Amino acid sequence: MAVDPLAVDPLIELRDVNKYYGTLHVLRDINLIVGKGEVVVVIGPSGSGKSTLCRTINRLETIQSGSIHLDGQPLPEEGKALAKLRAEVGMVFQSFNLFAHKTVLQNISLAQTKVRKRRKDEADQRSRELLDRVGLAAHAEKYPAQLSGGQQQRVAIARALAMDPKALLFDEPTSALDPEMINEVLEVMQQLARDGMTMVVVTHEMGFARNAANRVVFMADGSIIEDRTPHDFFTNPESARAQDFLSKILKH
Amino acid sequence: MNVLIDNFSVYGEGFLGTVELTVYASILALILGFLMASFRVAPVGSLRAFGTAWVTVLRNTPLTLLFFAVLLGLPRFGIVLPFQLFAVLALGCYTSAFICEALRSGINTVPRGQGEAARSLGMTFRQTLSTVVLPQAFRTVIPPIGSTLIALAKNSAIAGAFSVIELLGTYKFLSERGYNIIWTFVWIAVGYLIITLTISAVFNVLEKRYGVAR
């Protein structure tokens, strides 16, 4: 379970991270390093702590012990410094979380003007470029509720990209989607991976893990059980937990 | 009928007094209520505690007692202001506790993910609250805030007992003059209806414009 020696330039570093909900120990001694440009897919049974792990990286969840560094800097406490750091790490949620009272274009432009202090026309131009990139240029003036789930998730990805983040976190981005919409989102994600974006992806999409990931991290009961290349993991899982998990999901 | 025609200026003065109390106290209550609601959802513990204490004390104290405290208490600390200003302070602070809770219930109707998305984009607590959470909360809090301000308009009658000129207080002057008490009160009631129905009309318009779009 050695950390990838190729990751010479670490962007995200978690060291001995522990988290509890009351007495429930949800993250146990997590050590994870994600290098610049790496795509790390986190998989595991539900309740294994993989979403929580993803959310600790931009401190939407706090941790009780251990340390998290982003690009060499420790994650700050709540406040302006934390906000500044969060702008560098985009996040895409399972339930999209587009701002319901704003149009697609406003969704993407809002944080650009508020956080990056871009002029409105400048922000809108960038937003339209990104919408074009995710194939939704025609939908700029619509409200989120008027779009399908897959379209909403692509807007959410564009919104995260608008901040020019150093890394993107995906918390089960396709789990709330109808099957026919999953591919349109995965295609956008695969393109990002090819473009060299650093990504941490919590997902159940094994196809994406095989094709796009540099590493697969397998979690169970709050611990990282395996951390290997997709090929090694899928063809030759070492632990009984991973073998059991794979036998269940790859049967059909 | 004569009561109104003979004493139009008295009624008018009282009516204006009540309108002034209502408008100024409403503005104060909305500002303070907004501030306290922000405190109660803030990530800073001491702000949350202050907001909670503010609401607990003011919401659970009789308004009359608050009037006594402000009008008789503050001068002891050397704070001497016109009685009308004292009355606005008492009414505004009292009502702010209810406005705060109405706003907070609205904030709680906005899904958590909305705030999380804003924070994950690097927006500060204030930016998140003012551009993402409150505009969505606003839609659901229009009706309860309307009710609270109507209650404020009626509560302003208590100020009359502390020699502030307002609508209900006009009855003392008129009954001393021997006017029919029933008609005196009918016209006072009409005065309050004008104010409260205006408030409801304004909030109906607000609700029509902002309440539905989703």
TrEMBL record, chain A:
Belongs to the ABC transporter superfamily. The lineage of its organism: Bacteria, Bacillati, Actinomycetota, Actinomycetes, Kitasatosporales. This is ABC-type polar-amino-acid transporter. It catalyses: a polar amino acid(out) + ATP + H2O = a polar amino acid(in) + ADP + phosphate + H(+). The keyword Nucleotide-binding applies. It is an enzyme of class 7 (translocase). The keyword Membrane applies. PANTHER family: AMINO ACID IMPORT ATP-BINDING PROTEIN (PTHR43166), GLUTAMATE_ASPARTATE IMPORT ATP-BINDING PROTEIN GLTL (PTHR43166:SF9). One of its GO terms (molecular function) is ATP binding. Its EC number is 7.4.2.1. It is a peripheral membrane protein. Keywords: Amino-acid transport, ATP-binding, Cell membrane, Membrane, Nucleotide-binding, Transport. It is found in: Cell membrane. InterPro entries: AAA+_ATPase, ABC_ATPase_HisP-typ, ABC_transporter-like_ATP-bd, ABC_transporter-like_CS, MetN_ABC_transporter-like, P-loop_NTPase. One of its GO terms (cellular component) is plasma membrane. Residues 12-246 form the ABC transporter domain.
From TrEMBL, chain B:
One of its GO terms (biological process) is amino acid transport. It is a multi-pass membrane protein. GO terms for molecular function: transmembrane transporter activity. Its main location: membrane. Keywords: Amino-acid transport, Cell membrane, Membrane, Transmembrane, Transmembrane helix, Transport. Residues 15-203 form the ABC transmembrane type-1 domain. It holds the Pfam family BPD_transp_1. GO terms for cellular component: ATP-binding cassette (ABC) transporter complex. The chain crosses the membrane at residues 21-41, 53-74, 80-103, 149-169, 181-206. It is found in: Cell membrane. Gene3D superfamilies: MetI-like. Belongs to the binding-protein-dependent transport system permease family. HisMQ subfamily. NCBIfam families: HEQRo_perm_3TM. This is Amino acid ABC transporter permease. It comes from Streptomyces himalayensis subsp. himalayensis.
